[in-house]
Amino acid sequence: MFKKILIANRGEIALRIVRACKEMGIASVVVHSTADANGMAVRMADESVCIGPPPSRQSYLNIPAILSAATVTGADAVHPGIGFLSENEQFARMVEEHGFTFIGPTPEHIAKMGDKAVAKDTVKALGLPVVPGSDGILKSPEEGLELAKKIGFPVLLKAVAGGGGKGMKVAHGEDDFKSAYSMASTEAKNAFNNGDLYMEKYLTAPRHIEIQLIGDTHGNAIHLGERDCSIQRRHQKVLEECPSPGLTPEQRKFAGELAAGVVKKMGYRGVGTIEMLFEDGKFYFMEMNTRLQVEHPITEMITGVDLVREQIRVAAGLPLSYKQEDIKFNGWAFEARINAEHPETFVPSPGKITRYHAPGGLGVRVDSAIYDGYSVPPTYDSLVAKLIVHAQTREEAMKRMERALGETVIEGIQTNIPLQQLILAQPDFRKGEFNIHWLEKFLAVSQQTAKKAS
Q1: Across-strand partners of 339?
Q2: Which residues are catalytic?
Q3: I need a surface site. Which of 144, 175, 364, 373 has the fewest CB within 10 A?
Q4: pLDDT by residue (tens digit) across 273-319?
């Protein structure tokens, strides 16, 4: 087992990994920018190293600085956390070339799944159904338009190197195809330095279902059930739950076994998530995330499996602690992402937290690195806390989430807690009748109603 792990990340996920290290008896090192010098993860880690100024490119994306920090602190492994360099093939390769263990998949699997077109071809060959679309990268807008006519509009143009909803545009017909292509390519180029696109048939009312997976270096691979991440705004997840209210037990079993079979055939090492669209009783592969997910806690709540602990153990060469038959699903869990933003305009709201009180009680978990007096920097993602609840039934879990949101106090900045409360109050949501477009349609109607009233 590792003696010291360097954590190349920040915020709540860095703190989550520090906690796992402490429980496993492993020393931890947290790197940080000058903006995060007073971060909770920095305070809780055994050691910390400042690697640069606030801009990510000069700190959390600065590979030489991170590797230097690992060297001078004597770390023997690097955990990339979530975002930043967590799915960067070059980083994973350089970590291992410098004699450290990368706590994640092999560089080859990161590269294969990171290229969305290659990933689609790979899983298709392994038996996973895919959304009809282009076979690889589109060579030109003209080629894309001809293919769109064949598979039928609307179509979704997606960045090959995409993530977080960037580089994605819907073309509803021939008239707007080229403009959608141009906007998606430009956005992808700016975000990922790669403007290549591929195309898929745009499903009109699918759910976003993802399967949590983990494999080891001994040929074992298991799934830990699904999460429903359909409540989204601009392709960004807002409120997740586990399991999905839209699947039957048979569909749940089918999807889990199918996804686990794919990672087993791949010889995949570490945690990963296969994301799928589900419509009219059919699953379609969307992408694979070769890292820990923001919403992993709800899977932990219903399975009792510490995913970060397993991730570390697998990276150290140990076999999985569980076989598939050991995984038991208990109850229902929700995760509400608490962001520092205006609940209606979604404008970011960085600043100093003047008062903070976390909710508590049975079945309530808060993953956060904020505290009284903490200043939320304007430089990074607006996520400040993840509020997770668990109960025996979906109805009980919703009531628990409502209660926990009402107990949460975060003053000095604005948060999206009112939006989370509004979502939970909607009859469609309470009945589990929603898809990936539901939230944006609901918000559009709410805004129109507010304008008329004013």
Answers
A1: 383
A2: 291
A3: 175
A4: 999 999 999 999 989 999 999 999 999 999 999 999 999 999 999 99
